[in-house]
Structures are given as C-alpha cells and as structure tokens.
Design goal:
Number of strands: 5
Radius of gyration: 17 Å
Order of helices and strands: HHHHHEEEEEHH
Distance between the termini: 16 Å
Strand content: 15-25%
Low-confidence stretches: 1-17, 201-206
Helix content: 40-55%
Shape: globular
Mean pLDDT: 86
C-alpha cells in the first residue's frame, strides 16, 4: 500500500494566479495543507503536531467512506457494521500518516493545477503537474472528484494519470478480507499506521 505514496513525488506549491473551481477546491486545499506539513517538517515540528494539523483537511478533502468501501471491494457489504466503522477510521489514519511520513520537508518544487477538467460520468478528473525545482520533467498526479451535496471531494488519486490508489488498495486488501471478517486487514492497517508514526520521516519523493 505504501508504494503509491513512495512513488508520488509531491513536494507541492501552488502556482500563483490560478483560482480553484468548485470541483478543484478539495485538491487545492490538500495541496496547501501538504505544503504546510512539509514546511513544518523542515522546521522540526513533531510528527503528532503535523498529523493533527493535516487530519481535518484530509477528512474534508477526501470522501473517505467511499474510498474505504471501494478499497475493500465486493466483500464490504458482508462485513459487520462495527468492522466497517473501524476500517473507515483506520483508512483515515493511514492516509494522514502516509502523507505526514512521506512529506517531511520542503524542497522548492511547484504544483501546476491545470485548467482543463475531464468528465468521468458524474465525476471530474482534476489534473495537476508536479514541477521539480531542478527543472526536470514534471510528474502528473490527477484526482477523481465527486459531488457530495454542495461540495466536491476526492474519491481517488491517479499517479501518472492512470495508476489508481483505490485499485492498489483493493489489490493489497483482497487477501486480508474474507466474507464477513476483516480482522486481518484491521490488524495490518494498525501495524502500518504504527510504523509510519514511529519511523523516520523522509522528504517527499524519497
């Protein structure tokens, strides 16, 4: 599961002069929060403080219940309600912990929020380009967003415009869930979250 975050070299800084559309607002909000997280890491702010600051932004920007359900896959509806609730909480913790662990310092990279938005049924794909500070080729990170009431939220992240975070999770989770029981997946997520919290923080992209 961690390989998605390890591959995503997201040292982010918004390009000046680009106002986010309503559809792109959750992406812009996440980007700003990640910048703050990285700068806090460079200032030696502790893991827990960075986690606490980023957590509400992740919760607001992502549709975590939908992401959790899609990541577990077709066995989701067989799980007891208590396990579903526990998995949703752990998915939030895992997502935040992964970002905090990976985005540990700011290196001057920039993000370009592209103005074109691709339709995906009722959803939209928000395209971004990560521009390294050394002038090398940008990396594409796209976000699938869906409308939730009056707001839009992220329902998937696409590395290089094609590699679905949800699909990666689904592949990783499938061996840990059986009909009616997600005990192994719950234990695995707890272990990963603990490792991210206690492990050394590395700059994004490393």
């Amino acid at each position: 599961m961690k390989r998605f975050f390890s591959a995503a070299i997201l040292c982010l800084m918004p390009m000046a002069g680009l106002a986010a559309t309503p559809e792109a607002a959750p992406v812009a909000s996440l980007d700003s929060a990640l910048i703050a997280t990285m700068k806090a890491g460079s200032a030696n702010t502790g893991y827990q403080d960075r986690y606490n600051t980023l957590d509400p932004v992740v919760e607001q920007s992502f549709d975590l219940p939908v992401i959790t359900q899609n990541s577990v896959g077709f066995l989701w509806n067989t799980l007891p309600a208590a396990q579903q609730q526990q998995l949703a909480a752990l998915m939030e913790q895992f997502t935040v912990a992964s970002y905090v662990s990976q985005f540990g310092s700011f290196g001057g990279e920039q993000i370009k929020l592209l103005p074109a938005e691709k339709p995906l049924g009722a959803k939209r794909i928000i395209e971004t380009q990560i521009v390294p500070s050394d002038g090398s080729s940008p990396t594409e990170i796209d976000y699938v967003v869906g409308q939730m009431g009056d707001n839009w939220q992220i329902t998937d992240v696409l590395l290089n415009g094609t590699i679905s975070q949800v699909a990666i999770h689904s592949s990783d989770f499938s061996a840990l869930v059986t009909s009616g029981d997600a005990t192994q997946l719950i234990a695995a997520l707890k272990t990963k979250i603990a490792a991210l919290a206690s492990g050394p923080t590395s700059p994004a992209g490393q």
